[in-house]
Amino acid sequence: MNPNYAKWDFAAPLFDRVSIGFEYRYRKFKRELFGKCRGKTLLVAVGTGNDLNCFPENQSVVGIDFSQKMLEKTKSKLPDLPNSVDLIRADVETLPFPSDCFESIVTSCTFCSVPNPIQGLKELRRVLKPDGKLLMFEHVRSQNFLLGPMLDVMTLLTRKLGPDMNRRTGENIQKAGFKLTREFNIYLDLVKSFEAVKSNL
Amino acid sequence: MVFLRIFDWFLGFLMSLSTAFLMISIVSPEWNGFIAMIFGMVLGMAIPCLLFFIPIPFLADFEVMIPGMVCAMVTGMIIGMMISVNNITYQMLVFLSGEITVLTQITFSLFNKRVHGYVVNLPTGGNADESQLR
Lengths: 201, 134
Description:
The complex is a heterodimer of chains A (201) and B (134).
Chain A: H1 3-18, H2 20-34, E1 41-44, E2 60-65, H3 68-77, E3 84-89, E4 102-108, H4 117-127, E5 128-139, H5 147-161, H6 169-175, E6 178-187, E7 191-198
Parallel strand pairs in A: 1-2, 1-4, 2-3, 4-5
Antiparallel strand pairs in A: 5-7, 6-7
Helix pairs in contact in A: 1-3
Chain B: H1 2-26, H2 33-51, H3 62-83, H4 90-115, E1 117-121
Helix pairs in contact in B: 1-2, 1-3, 1-4, 2-3, 3-4
């Protein structure tokens, strides 16, 4: 069993409480980013469902997560949502969907926790339609000479219970075969939004 | 958001002050100044990392953790160097922690203003060129 499953099952009961600040600070940016999704949309790592409020009304969303406890918390919130949401337990590194089936894919603080991020992004590339769009809200390693090494040290501790703080998601997106069309610094160069399309490999 | 900014600064000050008090409790004037400085830096880094695991809202936010860690590290290093050469009073600790917090938070605000915004901004499907990359 993937050790990440147990880690996030353990985090599920407290997840909403500890992420209040994060949601309060960044909801505006998430709404703006998620508002760009069109058609059938995949939300990777739905968590406890906090991000479902950031989609436009009537948006059809398929939400996946590998943590059963997270999905159970999300299910309890579904009746209050204006969107149609299907929940599936799945791992982003091995998606149970056919190729080219989503018009938009959205991630929110997901790739800080995926063990093999390039493999996960390659899977997203596979299931995204050729004219589809990848929208990501992620925290990444800073390029600053002081903050970068600090985040490396913090990661030694934080990955025990939660996310890695030093992921190079911008580079990984391109390594997985996407073309980065937008990259926006939200807080320092740590919290960012990315937009990408399939590149012609 | 102003309330949040005040809260961020206050938590940075608390992290800085906690490091200062721990330093004078642990480090004695007999310590080598350089060793005490390095110890202060490590302690300053450890305190915010430990706070990350406390499930209190806002505590693990980047706006709290990152400037707070720098405040605590700088305070730990300065107190480490001062302990070996001076007698430090509690008033000095509070004043120094406050001063370091204000300077660090202002630096982070300015840094954030400088880097906030687009790094890449292409029309969908376009190619990046030098003028569009910062």
